[in-house]
Amino acid sequence: MLATQNEAIQRQQPWDYYRDNLGISNITQKEEFADFSYEPIAREFRWAEQVYQAGDTVALVAVYKNLPHHLQYNVDQLLLEEYRKKLFRIPLFEASLLLLSSGCLPGFDSLRERSKRFFSDSRADLQQQKALDFISSRNPEDIVVLVMRSGQLIGTMTLFPFSRKQDIPSLSYLRMEPSFDKVPDVPAVEVGRLAKATSDGKHDSRQGNNLMNTMAMAAAFIVTKNFVLQHGLVPAADSYMCGDTYGSFISSLKRFFPMRIVKSRINPDMLKDDNRVHATGMYFLQRHVLGSFGSADDLMSVIETIKKSNPDMANRIRELLESDLRTNGVKTIKKFHPEKFRVQFFYFPCYHPKTLEGFKRLEQVVQRMTTAERGVRHLENYV
Fold first, then answer.
1. Angle (deg, nearest 10), helices 109-119 and 90-101
2. Are 23 and 219 in contact (CB under 8 A)?
3. Which residues partner with 196 through β-bridges?
4. What is the average pLDDT value for the chain, to the nearest integer?
5. SS (H, E, C) 166-207
6. Rounded distance, CA 58 to CA 37, Å?
7. Is the N or the C terminus of the chain less surrounded, counting Cβ atoms within 10 Å?
8. How far apart are CA 188 and CA 350, in angstroms?
9. Angle (CA) 244 185 189, round 5°
10. Are 71 and 145 in contact (CB under 8 A)?
């Protein structure tokens, strides 16, 4: 989900509420989790709610307002860079607006009219800045996860505990398919987007970046597990962790957990809210438009249709899409994958045997990454 609690701030309770008033006793399954060892909390981490340490890697859970100022700054900068590069992408936003304005997308008439109202006179870079300003407007009570290696921040995400299914933050902008009815109505925790620094300066290759991303994910979920168990945030036998994402993150989690996917799509009604449009419309609009295509061929067909009546617009759409795809390592628009723009809701049960085994494997990932380079070379085959 969008990484801060902005969409849920109005109903967000302070951390003390969850710590003191959840009011549900712990369950026996909690004892089945291995309590992964970590070194005693160093003096500089006394402000943290939870600490996990393995070698030179430290993962923390803390209330945002309790973070030292330099870490607040580093967390904010890492988050903003993640969103600027991967979510609030100007070429995709401009291409989506042109596709809408062409009138060649069936079923998008109302969204086309709203987009004209809000974005016709707005520069894309200013719209991007509005979205980034929204993301950076932190709730002091945000529960944040930090992963550091050799003192450098390599990953961060936000946790969203809730006591009722109807309070899942993702419901504020996703329209779920009927299989969502199977999600248990119990206390659980939603995890926000994991923002990652793709290299620690030692691994410049793409393989090194992928391994570092895996390391950040593993440590973040281990410390999250320890935190939610210790504080009773997943007290029911069928409590779960959930979130929404797109692209490769779900595939990474599937390697470790019994993931259950609920097909979903951006709720276009949310763009009727003026405040939301100005804050995050850039993100939701491009996800909604580009994720609606069935394939790259479908997208190419629409561009060819536009070209018949407005060749300049068609050429501009193609240029924008190709420039963004090249930046992200895709050489041609024919390699466009619309499924990467579809936001999917996922969840996995906390106490399932495969979840327990998954956390043990994550621990092995972290341990191997914190040993000699020999372990790193073997890790690629392991994950």
1. 120
2. no
3. 155
4. 80
5. HHCHHHHCEEECHHHHHCCCCCEEEECCCEECCCCCCCCCHH
6. 12
7. C
8. 9
9. 45
10. no
Chain centroid offset of residue 106 CA: 29
Q: Give me the residues paired with residue 344 across strands.
A: 245
The pLDDT of 217-234, averaged and rounded, is 95
| Greater pLDDT, 143 or 123 | 143
Residue 18 CA to residue 73 CA, distance in Å, equals 26
The stretch 228-254 carries a mean pLDDT of 90
The whole-angstrom separation of Cα 343 and Cα 288 is 9
Distance CA 244, CA 132 (A): 19
Pairing verdict, β 143-149 and 174-176: unpaired
CA 146 vs CA 58, 75, 95, 177, 210: distances in Å: 8, 8, 35, 33, 18
- Please identify which residue in the block is written with the tokens 């109202």: 117
Q: Which two tokens stand for residue 239?
A: 């409590």
Q: How far apart are CA 120 and CA 101, in angstroms?
A: 10
Q: Cα–Cα distance between 259 and 237 in angstroms, integer?
A: 17
- What span, in angstroms and rounded, lies between the C-alpha atoms of 58 and 255? 23
Q: Show the tokens assigned to 208.
A: 């090194």
Tokens of 244: 């929404």
**pLDDT score, position 64:** 96
Question: Quick one: which of 213, 216, 167 has its CA closest to 190?
Answer: 167
Q: Please tell me the least confidently modeled range out of 103-107, 127-131, 372-376.
A: 372-376
Whole-model pTM?
0.81
For tokens 């570092």, what's the residue?
212
Q: In this predicted model, what pLDDT tens digit does every residue of 51-100 receive, in sequence order?
A: 999 888 899 999 999 999 999 999 999 988 888 887 788 888 889 889 98
| pLDDT band of 198, cuts 50, 70, 90 | low
Helices 124-136 & 90-101 angle (0-180, nearest 10): 120
Name the 3-class secondary structure at 8. Answer: helix
Tokens 């390391």 belong to: 215
> Per DSSP, what are the bridge partners of residue 58?
53, 148
Other CB atoms within 10 A of residue 98 CB: 19
C-alpha 11/C-alpha 249 separation (Å) is 28
Q: Is the Cβ–Cβ distance between 375 and 365 less than 8 Å?
A: no
Q: For the chain, give every domain's residue range.
A: 6-80+136-266+350-382
